[in-house]
Structures are given as structure tokens and as C-alpha cells.
User: Fold these one by one.
Assistant:
Number 1:
Amino acid sequence: MRNYVIAGNWKMNKTPAETTALINEMKPLVAGAACDVVLCVPYVDIAAAIEAAKGSNIKIGAENVHFKANGAYTGEVSAEMLTACGVEYVVIGHSERRQYFGETDQTVNLRTLAALNAGLKAIVCVGETLEQRELGYTETLLKYQTKMVLTNVTAEQLKNVIIAYEPVWAIGTGVTATAEQADEGNGYVRAAVAEMFGAEAAENITVQYGGSMNPKNAEELLAKENVDGGLIGGASLKAEDFSIIVKAVK
Ligand code: PGA
């Protein structure tokens, strides 16, 4: 049984006051959704988001987490701090973290383990660049990344992992992968999970697609066998657009 999850990734957008307003606007629009609905927001917006989402079907996530429990790591936030605030999900290894902040498969793996050990649900991102795709490395790379980020994750912990396949060339560019490309990429991720954890675990894991998913293309993408949800950037900043994507899950 696959669980469908539509998650917004707000990136570096919205103040606490704007967070309250946007979630209040979204709540009635996503009520009764046929999937889990998650909003991953900047750290400073978490308190406002949790307060605004109370009593609704919207769950709140963070956009990153550090791998150490505490200590001299200026600017970082631990998994325990997040759970103490009521956070349930966290995005890890987004390509913007990899591209601009030096994250590697190793640090993404460590952050994933820290999140899972604290009881958070981890939305772990993988994806190829345009250059890697054009060189024909998409399958190899997606399988490698998936295995790297899941190293030392237990079969039990895997139940709290969502993998988001996000082709780097499709993020924030308005260029969406075709439904076939999304299905194929998600299929490579699932195949890597099968090699590590077996066929049943691979069948059950939620694999999202992310990269310019919008109200127009969501239904076609989500209809694909291997696409079990979406990680939504730009379109998650608009209540109506986000709700149309949520409702595209039948
Ligand atoms: P986008 O972002 O929907 O704006 O392309 C997706 C993401 O970065 O998760």
C-alpha cells in the first residue's frame, strides 16, 4: 500500500505573519485530501505554521536538519529541536543545499539518520543535473545517490522515508520532466530501494517527483505508476495552485 504525499517546499520565502495568512487560506482548500499534505517551511516560520495548521490535515516540516544532537555548529538546528517544536517532516539533501551549501551524499545520509533516529519523517532528495542526463548517467546516478543516502537506514526506519526524485534541470526552471521521464526516474529510485531492502519495501515506499510540478501538469505526473506524490516549490506558495495539485491525487 503506497501512501501519497504532496509536500510544499517554501524555500526562503514567507515571514511568520505571511505563513499564518497562507496556511489559513490553504486549510479549507486542502481539507479532505486523498493524500498526506505537508508544508516544509523556514525554521523561523515553524511556530506560526504549526499554530495555523492546528485542527487541519496539514502537517508541518522543516527544510533541513543537522546531524549532530547539539554543540558548536553555528546556524544549525538539531532533529530534537524540530520534534520539540512539533515538526513531523524534514526535507533533506535538496539540490539547492547540495549546489549552494556544499552538501554531499555523505552529509545527506548523516542528516537522514539523525532525522529518523529522532522520529522525524525524512523527505530525501535525489536527482541528476542536465549534464549528467546528457552523458547518459541518469540511472547510474539515481541508484548510487539513493543507496548512498539510505546507508545504515534500517528496514523499520525506511517506513519513515520518502524519496523525492528531483531532476536538477527541472527545479524552478519551469521545465518539467515529462511524465515518462518522471516515472522512469522514480522507477530507478525504487529499483535501488529493492536492491537494498527487497521488493516489498520498494513497492511500499513513497517516491515523489519534484521539479516545476504545477496545477496543469500534476494530474498527468501523479497518474504514473511510480509517482506517489510531489515535492512542490513555486506552486506551494499559492494556496489555490497548491490545492489543485493536492486534489490531483485521486
Ligand atoms: P519547483 O521546486 O516546484 O519550484 O521547481 C521544486 C523543489 O525544489 O522542490
Note: The beta strands are 5-9, 36-40, 58-62, 89-92, 121-126, 161-165, 206-210, 229-232.
Number 2:
Amino acid sequence: MQQQHSFGFQIFDDISELNKEDTALLEEARKTTQKAYAPYSNFLVGAAALFNNGEKVYGTNQENASYPVGICAERVLLASASMIQTDVPIKTMAISYNNLSRTGNSNIPISPCGMCRQSLAEYEGRTKQPMRLILSGMEGKVIVIESASQLLPFSFGSESMK
Ligand code: THU
């Protein structure tokens, strides 16, 4: 039997088309890129997230001279989230980046790497709530996804270990 999988997402021309709450979060993600530690890639990633209770948390990529030791902005954010608001669901996370490499652009949305998708899915499962994602660079198009897990179909999770 043939099966198919798909998911819907929204795409906007720029930040001005977002509602007030999403605009504020994306603006903070863009600003937070300034706090990235990315001297090796010059690819500064910033993430900002809004908890259900109105609190916010931030993350940036943290690189290392031993390259594999580096951590993505999303997982830095989730680790902080878990510490400061334990088990509180995250309603929305905005992810932005500033590509400072010589020929780089920062106007096309990026989406989380595979390892971060796994972490995002775990956080959703643990807090039993979908996490919206807002993806955009420093300017230009914005993609909104209703649940981070949609980026990881056929995922391995706690259910798989029962
Ligand atoms: N990076 C993130 O922080 N998040 C992403 O979604 C993609 C990639 C970081 C990892 C590394 O420090 C740099 O961006 C280039 O890959």
C-alpha cells in the first residue's frame, strides 16, 4: 500500500505581514544573532522563544575550535528553557541568522538541522504541546510552521522505546 506524508506551512513576503506577537519574537531572534559565538563559520544564528506563560528565552550558536563541539542556537535555547521554566511548553520559537561570510546572504529562511529537529521533537513530546516555528533571515521571506515535529517525520522518540 502506497502512503504519502505532507504538511502545510505559511509563507510571508516579510515581517510586516506577521501579527504583533510573532513580529516581536522574530525581531528578538534577529537581534539575538549579535550574541552568537561563531568565529569559525561567521554564520550567526539567533533564536527567541515564547513560553505559554509569557516568559521568553533565547539562544545563539556557540562554536568551538574543535568544530564538532559547537552547539546550534536552537539547542542552546532548549537547554536554557529546560532550566529556567522546567516543563513549561514553548508556544513559538523564532529562528534567524546573519551570514557574515564575504559572499553570504541573510534573506532566505533557514530551518533547523537534523540534530535540532530531534531535540525540538523531544521538547514538544515532553511538554505535550506543538511548538510553532518562525523561520527567517535578517530580512525577506518568513516561513511559519505549526509544529516543529512536522520537520521530522518517522522520528524516533520515547514512544519508540516502550
Ligand atoms: N546553526 C545553528 O545554530 N542553527 C541552525 O539551524 C543551522 C546551523 C549553526 C551551527 C554552526 O555554528 C553554524 O550555524 C554553521 O553551520
Note: The radius of gyration is 16 Å.
